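Archive entry: two folds, one per protein. Generate the first.
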Amino acid sequence: MARARDPHTYDRTQRGFHWLMAALILVALALGLYAAWQVPGTSPRREILDIHKSIGLTVLLLLPLRFVYRLVAGEPAYRAPPSRSAHLAARAAHWSLYALMLLLPVSGYVYSAAGGYGLPWFGVFSFPRLVPVDKALSLAGYTAHYWIAWAVGIVLALHVLAVAWHAWIRRDEVLGRMWPRRAAEG
């Protein structure tokens, strides 16, 4: 017998998108940071950046699927709705995260493509170069990518702090909506 979904939690698909993309983004950020400390043009920097790019482009491909599914599936109801200001803050944070999840891989793509670098996807194929090789454009892509990566790190840290505040200080249902307890699923 199929279990009824808790109407106060995101469904499995939305939770899957959330946690998969969170893991991909964290790994890509860590690899990008580690690669930045390696000597340009050497091994293992090239290989690390190939994996970094593959993960970033995967996030870029998953983003529209996640976004459309989120629009179709909607948001679960709250048992106790948050205040209007808390709800608006959460909306702003989520829209910021969506925008950053788009801008970070796009800026990385522009940096790599305009710089004449490869755009591999885990060694299976390479993405097409949709921008001309252009040093100024590559530098603009690099600069944007660098600062957007910092913005992602800051917004993610604030996101985690907000979730921790909800879980441990407010002791409300916010974390349980995306990471429901076993009992909540059954």
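Generate the second and append.
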Amino acid sequence: MELIWEKEEKEAMMTCSHTKGAGYSQMYWYRQLPGEAMRLVVFTLYGKNDHDFGEFNKEKYSAHRPNAESGTFTVKDLKPADKAMYFCAVSQHNESN
């Protein structure tokens, strides 16, 4: 677990990597506020630039996938309400017809 300290109004960037191979191209970033359940912030699929932020604001969060085995997640314009646990998870991408 990595602890990140940044000043208010700055940004915090987190990295996630795995050694499961290129088939694990789906990456999920979650946020858990104190006393609350985890919520999915963004879903990324390596090779696609249009990440799915669902109900979260693309102006507040960003995600980047330089390769299938790693990714970054950034919280912009930090406020005290952004204090949370942030998690990443990966899974295999399966094409279904």
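Annotation attached to the second fold: The chain is about 0% helix and 40% strand. Residues 7 and 16 are 22 Å apart (CA to CA).
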